[in-house]
Amino acid sequence: MKRIISTNRAPSAIGPYSQAVEAGGTLYVSGQIPLIPETMKIVEGGIQEQTEQVLLNIGAILEAAGYHYTDVVKSTCLLNDMANFKAMNEVYAKFYPEKAPARAAFVVKDLPMGVLIEIETIAVK
User: Fold this and answer.
1) What's the CA gap between 40 and 87, in Å, rounded?
2) Computed over its alpha carbons, how large is the radius of gyration of the chain?
3) 73-106 confidence digits (pLDDT tens)
4) Considering the domain 2-124, what is its CATH architecture?
């Protein structure tokens, strides 16, 4: 059985997908981009501000599902430019200061709405 997770504290889906789905004690959080939930506009600033907004959005979804950052076991970070990796990493480390999840980071040609970063997450209870 799967449970669909939805919260107004994170951006609403901009396509035919759920913010997250829980199945078998595992939470799959769809890729989040740096949209401010209240306005659905991209947060102002560069990679650090965008990374922080993405991780705050992920946190809101985790909380809505009854999870926490400490439950995250895997993240996939999609960047528009590998030159942003170091600055992204600095912000990311603040959200996962100990026992960080497994992670992959890729550069992709384009991201939705021209953002600099998108992160998808898997959490387990």
Assistant:
1) 24
2) 13
3) 999 999 999 999 999 999 999 999 999 999 999 9
4) 2-Layer Sandwich (3.30)
Q: Quickly list DSSP for 38-105.
A: TTTEEPSSSHHHHHHHHHHHHHHHHHHTT--GGGEEEEEEEES-GGGHHHHHHHHHHH--SSPPEEEE
Residue type, 105: A
Enumerate residues 6+ apart whose C-beta is below 8 A from 106: 76, 77, 78, 79
Q: Determine the residue type at 75.
A: S
Residue that the structure tokens 């951006």 belong to: 11
- Res 14 pLDDT > 90: no
CA quadruple 58, 8, 23, 51: dihedral, nearest 10: -10
Whole-Å CA distances, 60 to 9, 80, 83, 84? 6, 24, 28, 24
pTM value? 0.96
List of residues 6+ apart from 20 with CB closer than 8 A:
4, 5, 27, 28, 29, 30, 61, 64, 65
Q: Where are the domains of the chain?
A: 2-124
